[in-house]
Amino acid sequence: MRDGFEVDPAELLRDLVATPSVTGREDDVRDLVVEVLDEHGVPHEVDEMGNVLAGERGGVLLNAHMDTVPAGDGWTVTDPYEPRVVGGRLYGRGAADCKGGLAAAVSAVVEANYEGLPLCLLATVGEESPREDDNGTLHACRRGLDALGGIVCEPTDEEVHVGDRGRITLEVVIRGESAHASTPEKGRNPIEAAARVVEELSRLAPSRCRVRGVGRVESSLSVTRIEAGGPSNVIPDECRLTVDYRAIPGDSVEEVRDRVERAARRAAPGFDVEVKVRSASRATAVDPDSRVVRWVVEAAREEGLEGELGFKLGHCDIEYLVHEAGLDSVIFGPRGGNIHGPDEWVDVESVRRCARVYLRVSERAAQT
């Protein structure tokens, strides 16, 4: 490995953060990535969805998404698209999720191309979209990926995550009986029943499992939305709850739905209760003895990190690399914070260190 990178990850990060790329509008960031690849002669293609595939196919695959959530309000350190470094942290929308990992990945793939190392890039669109049809990684996996293993470059505080929880979104529909608000006794208020349902759901015990190399992992459940329409002087006839359930390996979608439905019915006797599954993504756990896990742990330790194994509580595209493309994969990315919120940041030196780790992994892959 050479001492420096042809493309400084920190400088590329600045340019990426300064280029807005809210989901569905990733073109400018894609063009920036392609421009860097062109400048350094890295072979690449842009697929029909706008994903960028670059580097040596069949090598270790670095997966990073190009889109971000909207800028949002409440920023104090800088404006969302005016990257600023304070105390070694670069602030801006997407700095940690996932432009820090993207900058490290692009820099590493450029360097690997110069050194003839087996490393490739999959920079994708649509990761932040709630619609699976928008997800660029899923599209690329179904199109066909050939790789020695995958690294999802999401921020992990430089821990080696061997999997993540899935996400099951449920809708609880509680139907009552409408009435004028001045005579509530003539109706059955589904909002009052919904309040009892929320309390009952909060008492549900999480499911648990043990992930090899990590330890115990638990599910979680949150009610994230309550909706009831109609005029303010009318008892509504229906109330809807949105439930976000974070699934662990072994959780069944139907079993989760049934548990939520039983709890809701207990809390709302006399009301018509229906529970629907709106979306479901799979939890993932990779064998800690797989070669890509070993390569990343060893490379991280060479960069002075502890190489600890962890498990991501959120959800990311490792699901598709593992379950759709059949690639043993890990999640490994830089230190960052305030993700999806104001004053999002990423540690600049951590971004550089991740780029070196990715390149060291390709050196190991070259010896297989």
Write the layout of secondary structure elements.
Layout: H1 9-17, H2 27-39, E1 44-46, E2 52-55, E3 60-65, E4 84-86, E5 89-91, H3 95-115, E6 119-124, H4 136-143, E7 149-152, E8 160-164, E9 166-175, E10 179-180, H5 190-202, E11 208-211, E12 215-218, E13 220-227, E14 234-235, E15 238-247, H6 253-267, E16 272-280, E17 284-285, H7 291-302, E18 309-312, H8 318-323, E19 329-331, E20 336-337, E21 345-347, H9 348-366
Parallel strand pairs: 3-6, 3-7, 7-19, 8-18
Antiparallel strand pairs: 1-2, 2-6, 4-5, 5-21, 8-17, 9-15, 9-16, 10-14, 11-12, 13-15, 20-21
Helix pairs in contact: 1-3, 3-9, 5-6, 7-9
Describe the structure.
This protein is an alpha+beta fold. Helices cover 32% and strands 26% of the residues. It folds into 2 domains: 9-164 and 283-366, Aminopeptidase (3-Layer(aba) Sandwich); 166-280, Alpha-Beta Plaits. It has 9 helices and 21 strands. A hairpin with a 3-residue loop joins strand 11 and strand 12 (215-218). The longest helix is centred in the N-terminal third of the chain and has 21 residues, at 95-115. 51% of the residues are buried.
Low-confidence stretches: none
Strand order, biggest sheet?
1-2-6-3-7-19
Report the sheet-strand fraction.
25-35%
Please name the fourth-level CATH homologous superfamily of the largest domain: Zn peptidases
Kindly report the average pLDDT value: 97
Q: Determine the number of helices (DSSP H or I, runs of at least 4 residues).
A: 9
Residues in helix, %: 25-40%
Question: Got a strand count?
Answer: 21
Overall form: elongated
CATH topology description of the largest domain: Aminopeptidase
Derived from helix and strand composition plus strand pairing, the structural class reads: alpha+beta
What radius of gyration results from the CA coordinates? 23 Å
- Please give the CATH class of the largest domain: Alpha Beta
Straight-line distance between termini: 17 Å
Q: How many domain units?
A: 2
Q: What about the largest sheet?
A: 6 strands, mixed
CATH architecture tag of the largest domain: 3-Layer(aba) Sandwich
Order of helices and strands: HHEEEEEHEHEEEEHEEEEEHEEHEHEEEH
